[in-house]
Amino acid sequence: MAEFDGRPFFSCRNCLNPLAFHHDLISKTFKAQTGQAYMFSNAMNVVLGRKEDKQMITGIYTIAKIYCSNCGQELGWHYLRAYDLKQKWKEGNFILEKFKMLKEYK
């Protein structure tokens, strides 16, 4: 289990399983099916789904959906590959839907 030391973090809205630290937040400008989504450089306590190619607003990507390791809630996706050279910076990052998370301090 990660040490929080009063640092803000994001958890699963469904079961409060910790998902990501605030200091790993890259951007709040992403869009998902439920609305706003955040990009993180790291995520914890998630399970990756199967790889799939998906057409998105900015191009085609190979992604894997991510799920809470505790309750199984679908949370967003993990960028595995960007086919457009201008989008390569997204590779390896995680998108978590804002509506499916809570920000906590412990």
From TrEMBL:
Protein name listed in UniProt: Protein yippee-like
Species of the source: Citrus sinensis (Sweet orange)
